[in-house]
Amino acid sequence: MRYISTRGVAPTLDFRGATLAGLASDGGLYVPEQWPTLSRDEIASLAGLSYPETAVAVMRPFVGDSLTREELRALCEQAYGRFAHAAVTPLKQLDHDHWLLELFHGPTLAFKDVALQLLGLLFERFLTGDTEGPLTIVGATSGDTGSAAIDAVAGRAGIDIFMLHPAGRVSDVQRRQMTTVLAPNVHNIAIRGDFDTAQALVKAMFNDPGFSGRFRLSAVNSINWARLMAQVVYYFYSAVRLGAPERAIAFSVPTGNFGDVFAGYVAAKMGLPVAKLIVATNVNDILHRALSAGDYSSATVVPTATPSMDIQVSSNFERLLFDLGGRDGVALATQMQGFEASKAMRLTNLQHEGAASLLTSASIDADGMALAMRWAQEQANEVIDPHTAIALAAAREAAVDAPMVTLATAHPAKFPEAVERATGMSPALPGRVGDLFERQEVFDTLDATFGAVSDYIAERATPRG
């Protein structure tokens, strides 16, 4: 398996190279040179497998020669052995048609753990015996990526992590899960700006030859292909338990950066019968406008009770546009460079029509979110977080003749104020993180400028060997 850049210029890499690189050197994102497929019989055979066994079967084609099957199995068993539920990503039935796929049983109570626990182990495995020097991970988070990435690499040899979050725009639980990890290789940065600004700073550091030439940079955001690969697994795991491949399954996904949705798209490309993928956004609705009207134009970010979705530039959307546009890296590079300059872009007819065959979208406001939270509590005795509620609201609005799975992306206790406003009850943190508010916090607050952030990192990171 080889990996190519969506912008067509960066060198082709194997799985190990793409994992360690994160972002492609031409500013694009790595994708497989071709999509592997599983036959109906191969998909049916997943029904009796554990989550780690399912992960090996789904991810093995993407790994190529970078890991043996036995090495991949050992990494999966280690990664998912830390989850609080034996099923790792269990399904809960809400009513006759609707299901919740709980993705928050990992150590930081969010779906990002499913991928990042594995990614941390992949980094460690690929760096063993390496002579190119330590890895400097630079990432941006709208809430959950930061804590999951930090938990995955804290204390690991040969890795430093610098995580940017928008000051005052993540929940107290989300912030503390990052800033109370006091490992010497963990550096938390609050920037005076929004997530899109943080994400742009990260990309700028990767694309600046003077900075990226000094350090061996890598990414833990969903711009890193290995993260998306790991997320493909739970689409297969849940679908076969609801009757796939004999019947198609629909999924509703709360999204900001489009990574979780794109993982579902990959599952469909691999042969999983997906009836529909619903892209559920809050009022920061750039993805809804792009998919419904072809208008991918950035607007001002509106802070909401769903901070992980307060995004107006969705990095992973580039992967979809590349695949739907005939995989023309030169054309896509021109298209994306135009967007980066003007913050506005029209999808081509090929891109817009291709997306419509599988994807639909909805923008849910605060009232719709609250109503979904109350419905889940009153009708199904389930307390859900606000991001999950956005997706559930979209799922209940959709007219799809298939079992509907809503991805539950975070434990409700990560957003207690929003849950209490909607339902009247404040969910408690699970015992394993119950002392979170008693732990010491350490982080630095910086201006959202390239100079301030790159200088900060340069003073603390270890240069290339």
Automatic annotation (TrEMBL):
Q: Which terms does the UniProt entry file under GO BP?
A: threonine biosynthetic process
Task: State the reactions this protein catalyses.
Answer: O-phospho-L-homoserine + H2O = L-threonine + phosphate
Give, as one word, the top-level EC class: lyase
Q: Which residues cross the membrane?
A: none
Q: Name one Pfam family in it.
A: Thr_synth_N
SUPFAM superfamilies named in the record: Tryptophan synthase beta subunit-like PLP-dependent enzymes (SSF53686)
Per the entry, which co-factors are needed? pyridoxal 5'-phosphate
Pathway listed: Amino-acid biosynthesis; L-threonine biosynthesis; L-threonine from L-aspartate: step 5/5
Q: What is its EC number?
A: 4.2.3.1
Q: Which residues carry this modification: N6-(pyridoxal phosphate)lysine?
A: 112
> Tryptophan synthase beta chain-like PALP domain location, by residue?
89-345
Enumerate the spans annotated as Threonine synthase N-terminal domain: 2-80
Record key words, sorted: Amino-acid biosynthesis, Lyase, Pyridoxal phosphate, Threonine biosynthesis
| UniProt keyword annotation of Lyase present | yes
Q: Name one GO molecular function term.
A: threonine synthase activity
Q: Which InterPro entries match?
A: Ser/Thr_deHydtase_PyrdxlP-BS, Thr_synth_N, Thr_synth_N_sf, Thr_synthase-like, Threonine_Synthase, TrpB-like_PALP, TrpB-like_PALP_sf
Q: Family per UniProt?
A: Belongs to the threonine synthase family.
The protein in question is named: Threonine synthase
Q: Which organism is it from?
A: Sphingomonas jeddahensis
